[in-house]
User: Which sequence fits this backbone?
């Protein structure tokens, strides 16, 4: 009986009692199982609560970081808009100055052409 097999030919009432005693020592009662289940459920519920708490804290931190990031993005966007407006104003002023220069030069060129045409016309009349 030491190897766990039962020899039914030589199995006595004493062997039966020993066998039942060994089985009973290793068997859990319903109460033991219920207690173990309750302890297991309690541990699970505590861990589940901790996980929920950590998740809520994490969600809160993510929301806080997102709000700060949104605020910083808004500030940067406002600064960029102001810089773009400043550059646009400077470009508009330079373009207007160039436009005035082009207009003045155009009139000078036209004036010069009128003078040259007049001189040619006058010279043509003088030599003819």
Assistant:
């Amino acid at each position: 009986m030491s190897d766990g097999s039962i020899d039914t030919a030589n199995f006595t009432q004493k062997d039966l009692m020993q066998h039942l005693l060994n089985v009973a020592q290793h068997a859990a009662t319903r109460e033991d199982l219920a207690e173990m289940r309750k302890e297991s459920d309690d541990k699970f519920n505590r861990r589940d609560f901790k996980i929920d708490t950590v998740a809520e804290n994490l969600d809160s931190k993510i929301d806080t970081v997102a709000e700060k990031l949104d605020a910083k993005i808004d500030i940067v966007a406002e600064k960029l808009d102001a810089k773009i407006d400043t550059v646009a104003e400077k470009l508009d002023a330079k373009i207007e100055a160039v436009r005035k220069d082009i207009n003045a030069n155009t009139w000078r060129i036209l004036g010069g052409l009128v003078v040259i045409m007049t001189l040619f016309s006058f010279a043509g009349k003088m030599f003819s």
About this structure: The CA atoms of residues 79 and 105 lie 39 Å apart. Residues 30-127 form the longest helix (98 residues).
